[in-house]
Structures are given as structure tokens and as C-alpha cells.
Amino acid sequence: MSDPDRDLERMLGRDPHVVLRVISKFLIPLIALFALYVQFHGDYGPGGGFQAGVILAASVILYALVFGLKAAKAAFPPRLIRYGMTLGVLLYGGTGVVTWFLGGEFLNYSVLAHDASHGQHYGILAVELGVLVTVTSVMIAIFYAFGSRQPETSNEDW
């Protein structure tokens, strides 16, 4: 059985998806940059760690859809994704533990700096960064789990 994409590639003598790949190489960094914008402007408007995490994961998922799951797993290995899930939760929880050790309540950011408003700003940034890392890693892990599935059909199913 022949693959239609390979037949087209052989007939054209080149990559039939060259426009898609070039546009994606341009868009993926812009999507990641927009995720950072949403992350760091979450204090001043809509946005924050969750939204930025989903946007950043979308850029990785676009990479996987255009260049293949194998290429995405080479660029963003599942081991790194697992570490990201752990690191994000530890960053979130660790921020709360640090506030305990500084004499405040759990996640009372006011004790993180001499000025309460600066401490709240630092604490929110740390927690939102933890949320960003966790959400990005979980979304990519879910995509990898579903994208790696092989169809379980046999000749009897047809």
C-alpha cells in the first residue's frame, strides 16, 4: 500500500508542505513570545500562569503537528516534560513554604520583601511562574499521550 504524501513528494520532487513549515517556523516563536507577554502582564490585565501555559503548550503542539511527533519529542523530551510538571508544583508550593519560614501564613506574600506590596508582587510572580511551568508541561504530556497512541485495529475489524 502506498502513502499518498510520499507519492506526491516523489512526483513533485520536494516537500509538499514547505509553506506550512516556513510559516510555522515564523509563528511558533511569536506564539511563545505572546505567552510570555500574557504571563508577565497578568498582574495588570487578563492573563497569568494558566493562560500563558496553555498558549506556550500550543506552540509546542503546533511544532509537533507540523514537524512530527518524533521531532517534537526530540526537541522537548518526555523526561523534560515530567521534570517540568514536578518543578512547577514545587515552585508553587515552595513559595508558600518560604512564606511560612519567614513568619507569615502559607502563601502570604507580604513577608517576602520589606515592603508588603513588593513582597506580594514577587510572590505572585513566583506562583504564576509555577503555574505556567505546570500547565505547559501537563498540556504537552496530554498531547504526547494521545498523539503516541497506535490504532488497535486488526483485519477482522474491517
From TrEMBL:
<feature type="domain" description="Na+/H+ antiporter MnhB subunit-related protein">
    <location>
        <begin position="19"/>
        <end position="140"/>
    </location>
</feature>
<keyword id="KW-0812">Transmembrane</keyword>
<dbReference type="Pfam" id="PF04039">
    <property type="entry name" value="MnhB"/>
</dbReference>
<dbReference type="InterPro" id="IPR007182">
    <property type="entry name" value="MnhB"/>
</dbReference>
<dbReference type="InterPro" id="IPR050622">
    <property type="entry name" value="CPA3_antiporter_subunitB"/>
</dbReference>
<feature type="transmembrane region" description="Helical">
    <location>
        <begin position="50"/>
        <end position="69"/>
    </location>
</feature>
<comment type="similarity">
    <text>Belongs to the CPA3 antiporters (TC 2.A.63) subunit B family.</text>
</comment>
<keyword id="KW-1133">Transmembrane helix</keyword>
<keyword id="KW-1003">Cell membrane</keyword>
<protein>
    <submittedName>
        <fullName>Cation:proton antiporter</fullName>
    </submittedName>
</protein>
<feature type="transmembrane region" description="Helical">
    <location>
        <begin position="81"/>
        <end position="102"/>
    </location>
</feature>
<keyword id="KW-0472">Membrane</keyword>
<feature type="transmembrane region" description="Helical">
    <location>
        <begin position="18"/>
        <end position="38"/>
    </location>
</feature>
<feature type="transmembrane region" description="Helical">
    <location>
        <begin position="122"/>
        <end position="146"/>
    </location>
</feature>
<dbReference type="GO" id="GO:0005886">
    <property type="term" value="C:plasma membrane"/>
</dbReference>
